Amino acid sequence: MRIVHTETVKSLSGQTLRLIAEAQALSAAGHACTVVGPAGTDFHRRAEKSIDFRPFRFAKRDPRSLARARSLLRELDPDVVHTHSSRDAWLFGLAARSLGIPIVRGRHIARPLPRSPLGRLVHTRLADAFTASGETIARMLIEARVAKPEAVWVTPAGIDFERFDWRARDPAALRDELGLDPRARLVGTACNLRAQKGVGTLLDAFCELNDERAVLLVAGKGDPAPFAARSGCAAGRVRFLGFRDDIQRVIGALELFVLASRTDEGVPQAILQAMALRVPVLASRVGGIPDVVRDGETGFLVPPDDVEALSTAMRRLLAAPPPEAILDAAWSLVREQCSLDAVVARYLEAYAYAGSVSS
Hints:
The chain is α/β, with parallel strands linked by helices. It is built from 15 helices and 13 strands. Helix 1 crosses helix 15, helix 3 packs across helix 4 and helix 8 crosses helix 13.
């Protein structure tokens, strides 16, 4: 099968990193997979090293963009186009529809769908099937009546279990690399440094711990300056690590993984990675996070933007680590539902369905 994925996100984020990994998996399974993404970006520079990547300039309000999209699709001649964000869904959706190519629309965030007829058009007319990063997002598509239940496939980020192998965890090595006390208790997060991810809330909650042994590791791309001032009360015990290619080493060194997201989350890839590494997860009850973090069963949930609740939960989990049964349940959930093979298989089912209804 010839597959074209389109994506307008420019940064190296969970969404673009998972797309690279899944394109590699589709190619390894014998499919011709091409990713079209924004030219001259971090995504472009990383993706072109490992997959067939076509840089594209997604110009705003430029009618020539549609002609260029049609020309590229004629050249690639795909069996299906899989769109992933708003602008590429409009542009390549229109181009694919005009050429009679089936379209699958990927939906990654738990944001309400547009109510206006024009805003809904990208889902109702420019999609033959849907992939949704979690059950919550799938339900939103169905309840908004833009998708039939049989046209939606739940496809959380595919996890590479050879890379995220809990048996290879080596916390001491990361402590040595960062020059940390061997007795340090490592709490951490992995996300792009944006207000939406609740980094400020996490820093405030960490400051309230009053635990001199606790160290907070914040891994992710972005400028730490807007957040650094909020970590002053924990002098020297907050480390901003920047983007890490070896995120499995960072997450695997933690006693507790925390994601304090505020809104619109799908199913964050870092949470699934922590579960695969058998690291306890504490997260906000927003978006699609409760699809996988089931409070008291596979992890722990607190309300968003609630510094006191987050700090109290962190203190409790550091004082009394969760039972192995919770880590077992989290690992089993990810293993059964979120392997790369499982996600690729669901993609192929969605592609076959789209081809059958668009013909």
